[in-house]
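Incident review: delayed structure delivery

Summary: a single-chain prediction request sat in the queue longer than the usual turnaround. Root cause was a stuck worker, restarted by the on-call engineer. No data loss occurred. The affected request and its eventual output are reproduced below so the record is complete for anyone auditing the incident later.

Affected input:
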Amino acid sequence: MEKNSGKVRVRVPASTANLGPGFDSLGMALNLYAWIEMGLADTTRIHLIGEQMEGIPADKSNLVYKVAQMVFERAGVRHPELEIAMYSDIPLTRGLGSSASAIVGGMAAANALIGSPLPQSELFRMATELEKHPDNVGAALFGGLVAAFWDGERAEHIRIEPDERLEALVAIPHFQLATEKARHVLPRELGMDKAVYNIGHASVLVAALCSGRLDLIAQAMKDALHQPYRAPLVPGLTRILGEATRHGALGVALSGAGPTMLALVDKHSPRKAELERFMKETLLAEGIESTTMWLLPDREGVRVEKLTADQQSGTLWENIKGEVRA
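Output delivered after worker restart:
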């Protein structure tokens, strides 16, 4: 098997999951990114750049290192020592797919480093098995909107091209919410009425996104499965879910497990400033500072490139500083 003797760099997007009713099955990539450079080495060295990397381990317990080793094992090769550099604009534990970006980015980089023996479908299966749900990893890998399932053995997805009019406003509270905690509050069982409610709303939401029926999004993004139970963990969420469409949103949802809130908006709407003000002020009334960002759907998914000799001589930051959000 031919291997790349140099380095590779990947850019992987953030993602939002669920979009309301599509629990663990719907995801959308967003144009907020993490970058990873990876090369073979004599001794493992992990360089973490930027404030989003604070608290991330810089040894072989690092998630990117571990998923790279999973790829090598699956491909039947052994490369225990790596040089890895990482930078991310994606905030950690905020419901914007930071762990999915690390998993997908690490797997894609490792695969490219050894000549890409594994197809994307296998990377998707491996990433989904690790995450236990396919929404974030599918969006990060394929870009756009992704409808997917994982049955414990098989991962399947269909990619949907986002409508050109779609834009997203995210309000990111200045506190972290662990996914494990957000899942712990969910009931073990649900009544048939709530199950049917979510199946119907998720089905109409996918159909609306496929057909460009933006007028149906507000009602289709409603959820009875997870958001009502997570609302106590995110002050202001109930009001934002109930009122954001009155301030110009097409639809609104908790992004993944939260605490970030996501509003879908027509990019040509004249009410964007009103909506942003409403979301920030609602959180502030609960004593919560937040950062808002206007994002677009990412249509590319993970991007992989082999570094040139000039790029290899520079640092990751030197190579990407013209691309980062900051």
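Verification: The two ends are 40 Å apart (CA to CA).
Action items: add queue-age alerting; document worker restart procedure.
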